[in-house]
Design brief:
68 residues; three-stranded antiparallel β-sheet
Length: 68
């Protein structure tokens, strides 16, 4: 299925103000939001922040908010 992620982005070193960026991607029914964020980083926007796997019991390092 096709989903759209609207991610709130802000990098004080290059952005004057925060903004939303929308990404369209294919998702499986079993994908978690974390999986989708990793797809965005890997295939559409390498500048997205790194995320640690929450399912593995590690904390997430994510200086942005996201909505699905």
């Amino acid at each position: 299925m096709e989903v759209m992620l609207k991610i709130f982005r802000y990098n004080p070193e290059r952005d004057k103000k925060p903004s939303y960026k929308t990404y369209k991607l294919e998702a499986e029914e079993t994908d978690r939001v974390l999986d989708l964020l990793e797809k965005v980083k890997g295939y559409q926007d390498g500048t997205s922040p790194s995320v640690a796997p929450v399912g593995m019991g590690t904390a997430v390092r994510m200086p942005c908010a996201s909505t699905v």
